[in-house]
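User: I'll paste a sequence; please echo it back and then give the predicted structure.

Assistant: Echoing your sequence first, then the prediction.
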Amino acid sequence: MLDEVANAGRENLDAEHAWHYDAKEDADALGELRILEDLGLDGQSALVDLGAGTGQLAMAAAAVCARVVAVDVSPVMVQPLKAKIDEAAVSNVEVVQAGFLTYEHRGRPADFVYSRFALHHLPDFWKAVALDRARRILQPGGILRLWDVVYDFGVREAEDRIAAWCDAYTDAPDGEWGRVDLEEHVRDEHSTFSWMLEPMIERCGFEIEEAQYTSDGFFGKYIARAR
């Protein structure tokens, strides 16, 4: 079995980074929540957030749905989330330290599975295993909302595209994602091509209803329904 903690990424195992993550990364939780509500998320819904990190989406969703399970493999990333839960005194968010490959869902099947910038920590074989396990969490007709770094270009374009992507972040301000972060991502993590990920999602029991890619070809957002 893949060691998901070892593959969680250097920064995600750094306690200082975890406590400052929200200042560095805006997950657009309210925008994502509106999308989920348009897809049927309501006061009866159960949502599982795989790779929840500091829980930006999980905390937003707790205000509108019945149950949120925030799952993250990193022992340091879940600490800020637990502090948020204590401060807000919410009772419908459960924190589970586990990964895509080890989380065991309890209770009725979920209506939604959410994952943002987490699946790329797994090599492609394990991505497929993770997606199959996500499908088994969901009831038929349930929704997977997936947002990740995805390479939406051909193999022969990759060298030039990635060089341009890294170049664009050369002069990033301190405290934001910079060139070194992008180079580390490409070198050490496991983002894949869109034309590999889409059939993988479908092969694991989903029907892709929407696939959006940014114009630079580096980010993909999916809405997929469990068959």
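The CA atoms of residues 75 and 195 lie 33 Å apart. DSSP finds eight helices and seven strands in the chain.
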